[in-house]
């Protein structure tokens, strides 16, 4: 008689899925297989996941896979997470089960943080600042790393420099204002008048209402421009820079065309894409612990209301971040 082998039960979890590309209505919570960590990886029980504009792009287009013509969906949404290490894979020495962590794993490769569990390379995470809740911490990684890598790693902002931040009240912008101030810069932001009070509370020194004034005509002698808007803002921003100034574009790789124009003017310009960066997260956590950085959270919704979260984000009218609560 042939022996019957016992089959190990497959562990499952709740996660966000989609059967088609499209608007927020395509998102739904499904049952998925719970992953296991491999070499140099950790399994994180996700407590909260941040929502970012890039998530909308991936939901609607398939993201990088869609551009390359690969078959989509499914699309695994979400990069921001805050949670607790459930288990560690072989070779991990910097975390252990029970550690509270936050991060932006694998970007731009899909991470799928809209789920109860996520596997991440250990060095794509950092210890969560003790001063923050998981909801607050989940609002930070992608946006704060973008601001940090643009202002510090790319532009090298120094004390006394003048920094112009476009879309200053947005997810990246409001964190960039604080990081620039922490570096000792004089910060100028573009935002609608209704958001000026919010930005002054974060430390902005000067604000331009883009609905009534042309920043290219009123702002001068800037050392660094952080441009999350793109389009016509790019060439107009070059007019605000002093000799040797730097323009960092975040909106689209198409903004790289500014490099040649900037060089003719004695300036530097280029497009920057954010990368997973545990070391950068530790710098961000240090600013949080010193009381110099906080993420403004506009809305918190449970995972089951992910469609509402995306619909709100798609209005482009929010200040700060939207966060999904995933598990207790």
Mean pLDDT: 93
Oligomer classification: single chain
The CATH fourth-level homologous superfamily of the largest domain: Medium-chain alcohol dehydrogenases, catalytic domain
* % residues in beta strands: 25-35%
| Poorly predicted tracts of residues | none
| CATH class (first level) name of the largest domain | Alpha Beta
**What is the 3D shape?**
globular
Give a written overview of the molecule.
The protein is of the alpha/beta class and 328 residues long. The chain folds into two domains: 12-140 and 295-325, Quinone Oxidoreductase, Chain A, domain 1 (Alpha-Beta Complex); 143-271, NAD(P)-binding Rossmann-like Domain (Rossmann fold, 3-Layer(aba) Sandwich). It is built from eleven helices and 15 strands. Strands 3, 4, 5, 6, 7, 14 and 15 form a seven-stranded mixed beta sheet that branches. A six-stranded parallel beta sheet has the order 10-9-8-11-12-13. Strand 12, helix 9 (258-264) and strand 13 (268-271) form a beta-alpha-beta unit. Helix 4 crosses helix 5 (171-182). It starts with 11 loop residues before the first strand and ends with a strand.
């Amino acid at each position: 008689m042939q022996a019957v082998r016992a089959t190990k039960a497959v562990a499952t979890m709740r996660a966000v899925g989609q059967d088609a590309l499209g608007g927020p209505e395509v998102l739904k919570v499904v049952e998925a297989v719970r992953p296991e960590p491999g070499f140099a990886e950790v399994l994180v029980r996700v407590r909260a996941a941040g929502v970012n504009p890039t998530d909308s792009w991936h939901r609607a287009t398939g993201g990088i896979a869609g551009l390359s013509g690969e078959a989509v969906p499914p699309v695994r949404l979400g990069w921001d997470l805050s949670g607790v290490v459930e288990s560690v894979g072989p070779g991990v020495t910097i975390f252990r089960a029970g550690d509270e962590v936050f991060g932006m794993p694998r970007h731009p490769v899909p991470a799928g943080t809209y789920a109860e569990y996520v596997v991440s390379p250990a060095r794509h995470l950092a210890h969560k600042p003790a001063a923050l809740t998981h909801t607050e911490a989940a609002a930070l990684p992608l946006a704060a790393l973008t601001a940090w890598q643009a202002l510090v790693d790319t532009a090298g902002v120094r004390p006394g420099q003048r920094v112009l931040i476009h879309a200053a009240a947005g997810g990246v912008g409001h964190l960039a204002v604080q990081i620039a101030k922490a570096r000792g810069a004089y910060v100028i932001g573009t935002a609608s008048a209704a958001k000026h009070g919010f930005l002054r509370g974060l430390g902005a020194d000067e604000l331009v209402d883009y609905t009534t004034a042309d920043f290219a005509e009123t702002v001068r002698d800037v050392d660094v421009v952080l441009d999350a808007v793109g389009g016509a803002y790019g060439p107009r921003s070059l007019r605000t820079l002093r000799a040797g100034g730097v323009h960092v574009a975040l909106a689209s790789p198409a903004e790289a065309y500014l490099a040649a124009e900037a060089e003719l003017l004695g300036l530097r310009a280029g497009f920057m894409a954010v990368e997973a960066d545990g070391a950068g997260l530790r710098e961000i956590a240090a600013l949080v612990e010193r009381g110099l950085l906080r993420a403004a959270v506009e809305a918190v919704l449970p995972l089951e209301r992910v469609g509402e979260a995306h619909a709100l984000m798609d209005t482009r009218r929010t200040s700060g971040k939207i966060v999904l609560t995933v598990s207790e």
